[in-house]
Write a structure and sequence with these properties.
389 residues, alpha+beta, PX Domain, SH3 type barrels, 5-stranded antiparallel beta sheet
């Protein structure tokens, strides 16, 4: 799984669910290597099975060979029947277990077994429910009860945002809010749906309905990138507003500005416009079941469509018009083309390597002196001697 690893796991509390039958799930906030924070739900029976498999994978570190070598933390087995009290009392043990787990040597804490178990699953985003059955009950862990461990690890501080307008939920996984409500952000999804908590309530809320407390601008929002990132359309969308773009599934586009409300500015040829980020997938990236599940949720509303929005800030949030996006995008494309043309038209430099010429005035071999008649008569054959007589 490459350089992926978990920085921190925080137990937030548990839920009592009634579908398909009554059971309890623990809520964990997982902080990953890239500082993203994801909410996952796990039954204790799942956690214990994960723990047993981890011990089998690392028998030395689990103390199976020698108890002195044990570094994998203990975890008590589940009871025959887990009720509200046992689920609640086990929270302290799980908090310490998660802290110990992420601080184990990398070969354990970053192994595929650990990473896969805490990755977001489709049922984390949309838990199975039945409209005829009672809605889940949430029990959050008091902040002071987590202080002893989180003081050591560095707690995950949830950001507080304010609701600028009333929002009525459209599904059980969402949460209704009223103007002025102060909500804690558990997870900021690129889709524009943020998972929030308000007192003992939790659910998905459109980011467009929320504003930061210290000012109208989003400090985490990126600047435009006119070079663009290649994406592929995974779901078609027909523009409703004039500044949006209509695209079909399979279209290749470039994303030039990623906005936190889930409506990204995209470019196709020289045309720009807003498009729902949840309907896009990065080029070359494998299909993600969790993202597919989120796409079925529907696009979040845009801030420009919210009526009677009431902000506590005197200044409004700065917004770049599509005219500026198009103009700057056109300039970038033109400069890129000019650079390409200049490289193609630039004459190539040919370096002629001349081989060294052979010297014409090579030294001539010396001509031996002609032998004397006496020498020939003394040393040569009779045939040669007769020729000079």
């Amino acid at each position: 799984m490459g350089d992926m690893y978990i920085r921190h796991i925080e137990l937030l509390g548990f839920e009592k669910r009634f579908f398909p039958s009554q059971h309890y799930v623990y809520m964990f906030l997982v902080k990953w290597h890239d500082l993203t924070e994801k909410l996952v739900y796990r039954k204790f029976t799942e956690i214990y099975e994960f723990h047993k498999a981890l011990k089998e994978m690392f028998p030395i570190e689990s103390g199976d060979i020698s108890i002195e070598n044990r570094i994998i933390p203990h975890l008590p087995a589940p009871k025959w029947f887990d009720g509200h009290r046992s689920t609640q009392n086990r929270q302290g043990t799980l908090t310490e277990y998660c802290y110990s787990l992420v601080n184990l040597p990398c070969k354990i804490s970053r192994c595929p077994h650990v990473l896969t178990f805490f990755k977001v699953r489709p049922d984390d985003l949309n838990p199975p429910t039945d409209s005829l059955i009672k809605t889940p009950e949430t029990f959050l862990l008091p902040k002071d009860s987590k202080q002893n461990v989180t003081d050591i690890t560095g707690p995950i501080i949830l950001q507080t945002y304010r609701a600028i307008s009333d929002y009525e939920k459209n599904s059980k996984s969402e949460m209704a809010i009223k103007t002025g409500d102060l909500v804690d952000i558990v997870e900021k999804s690129e889709s524009g749906w943020w998972f929030c908590q308000l007192k003992n309530k939790r659910g998905w809320v459109p980011a467009a309905y929320l504003e930061p407390m210290d000012g109208p601008e989003e400090s985490e929002e990126q600047d435009p990138n006119y070079a663009g990132e290649l994406y592929v359309v995974r779901k078609s969308y027909t523009a409703i507003e004039e500044d949006e773009m209509s695209l079909k599934e399979g279209d290749a586009i470039e994303v030039i500005h990623k906005l936190l409300d889930g409506w990204w500015v995209v470019r196709k040829d020289e045309t720009t416009g807003y498009y729902p980020s949840m309907y896009l997938q990065k080029s070359g990236e494998e299909n993600n079941p969790a993202k597919n599940q989120m796409r079925n949720k529907g696009v979040p509303p845009r801030r420009s469509t919210i009526r009677n929005a009431k902000s506590i800030h005197n200044q409004s949030r700065k917004q770049i018009s599509q005219e500026i996006y198009r103009r700057n995008s056109k300039k970038y494309i033109q400069s890129r083309q000019n650079l390409k043309d200049s490289l193609l038209n630039k004459p190539s430099t040919i370096i002629e390597i001349k081989e060294p010429r052979e010297s014409k005035s090579k030294a001539q071999p010396a001509i031996p002196p002609r032998p004397s008649k006496a020498l020939i008569l003394n040393r040569c054959t009779e045939s040669t001697k007769n020729k000079i007589n």
